[in-house]
Specification:
about 130 residues, mainly alpha, 2 domains, 8 helices, elongated
Length: about 130
């Protein structure tokens, strides 16, 4: 039986990542509850929650931008095989977003993500890694 609370929190968080901060700010209490549910799920090892929180921290949607926290969350999710997290982590390495540049590692992650069909991973790999 799926945990619908986590699913609803993931869905709302995804909308917050896609929409402007104004759309997310409609209900501060609801947003805080969503963040709490996502954080709890991420702490329990939910790869989708870790990736979603990472995106929120990377983009500053519903939270203060925090590249270091985004990097940690993407890493945990990527370690579990989440293709979108692998792509995001790869981009952070290639573009040196608050982490030391590691082109080889970034390109490897982007390639793995592209093989799994992660959105935009192949384009990023082609742009930054293909010689």
């Amino acid at each position: 039986m799926p945990d619908w609370t986590v699913f609803r929190a993931l869905a709302l968080a995804a909308l917050c990542v896609l929409w402007t901060g104004a759309a997310c700010a409609q209900g501060a209490a609801k947003a805080n509850k969503t963040l709490t549910v996502l954080q709890q799920a991420a702490d329990k090892g939910d790869a989708k929650a870790q990736y979603t929180l990472g995106e929120m921290y990377l983009l500053g949607r519903g939270v203060r931008p925090d590249y270091a926290n985004a990097f940690i969350l993407f890493g945990k999710s990527a370690d579990q095989g989440n293709a979108q997290a692998q792509a995001a982590l790869g981009e952070m390495y290639v573009r040196s977003l608050e982490v030391p540049a590691d082109i080889q590692k970034g390109c490897r992650l982007l390639h793995e993500a592209a093989l799994k069909g992660a959105d935009g991973a192949q384009d990023k790999f082609d742009r930054w890694c293909a010689n």
